[in-house]
Design a protein that fits this description.
This protein has 281 residues and is mainly beta. The chain has one domain: Jelly Rolls. It contains 2 helices and 24 strands. The protein has a 7-stranded antiparallel beta sheet, with no helix packed on it. A hairpin with a 2-residue loop joins β23 and β24. The longest helix is centred in the C-terminal third of the chain and has 12 residues. The chain is globular, with a radius of gyration of 18 Å. It starts with 5 loop residues before the first strand and ends with a helix. The relative contact order is 0.20. The chain binds fe (ii) ion. The site of fe (ii) ion has 6 residues, from β5 and β10. Fe (ii) ion (FE2) binds next to β5 and β10.
């Protein structure tokens, strides 16, 4: 067994996006621009409506997938192809933007706690212009696996115990787990050895080893990029811990970013802006 180690520890950076939503950018900031195939990870958690009420009015995407996972609160989603719905607590919306979509993501609440994540997952060049698609699941569709000391929600991928998440994406073969670990407990999981992976702590603390063999204490809002290896071994401290464990197959292709578009070349990004401006989405 080659256990994955913490290769880099990232602390999320406070920023504002959309029409003025306060969030913490974890992937997609100078310290970690991307972790192939993951392009961005934003975390939002606030009970002050001033931090979120402005939401994300209509904006386009092309070339990748946006994955919204809500822990608390409600978000209304609407796009230019006529899809509309509300993401509820514990629900997931896995949107393949593909060739292009214009959507809005607005809080469906005037007050109270809004908490969740948005992860961007890249698409390979041959599939960037695929037709837009959705995989949407509410909390009741996301299986919970119980182990000694741990409970996990399996959004995507198959765990070593055989629990299968409802979202499938063979292009990047993602694993997306939301794990709650009891105090002083251990969590071990097998991951595809050549896939990139990270853990992100939502609450409590995680203990793991870094690539020098030293102990790393990973706190709230911190992410550890994991080295390659076939399994991951994580421990909680004296408090319960909740974290995301995410892995995916790297695409190893050039990444050209232009705001809401992620393509392989600058020319393709310019084409995306031009298509959007001409109303060709
Ligand atoms: Fe969006």
């Amino acid at each position: 067994m080659n256990t994955r180690k913490a290769q880099q520890v990232i602390t999320g950076q406070a920023t504002t996006d959309g029409a003025g939503v306060d969030l913490v950018r974890v992937i997609g900031q100078p310290a970690l621009m991307d972790l192939d195939p993951f392009l961005l990870l934003d975390a939002f958690r606030s009970d002050d409506p001033n931090d979120y009420i402005a939401g994300f009015p209509p904006h386009p995407h092309r070339g990748f997938e946006t994955v919204t996972y809500l822990l608390n609160g409600r978000m209304r989603h609407k796009d230019n192809t006529g899809n509309e719905g509300v993401i509820e607590p514990g629900g997931i919306q896995w949107m393949t933007a593909g060739s292009g979509i214009v959507h809005s993501e607005m809080p469906e609440q005037q007050d109270g706690l809004l908490e969740g994540f948005q992860l961007w997952i890249n698409l390979p060049s041959a599939h960037k212009m695929d037709r837009p698609a959705y995989q949407e699941h509410d909390a009741t569709n996301i299986p919970t696996e119980t182990r000694e000391g741990a409970t996990l929600k399996v959004i995507s991928g198959v765990t070593s115990q055989g629990t299968t998440g409802p979202v499938t994406q063979p292009l990047t073969d993602p694993v997306y787990l939301d794990v709650t670990l009891q105090p002083d407990s251990e969590f071990n999981e097998i991951l595809a050895a050549d896939h990139n992976a990270f853990v992100y702590v939502i609450s409590g603390q995680l203990v793991l080893e870094d690539t020098d063999g030293d102990r790393v204490d990973l706190g709230c809002d911190q992410l550890a990029v994991l080295s390659k290896g076939d399994n991951v071994a994580l421990r909680s401290g004296d408090q319960a811990s909740r974290f995301l464990l995410v892995a995916g197959k790297p695409l190893n292709e050039p990444v050209a970013r232009g705001g809401p578009f992620v393509m392989n070349t600058a020319a393709e990004v310019r084409q995306a802006f031009s298509d959007y401006q001409r109303g060709n989405f």
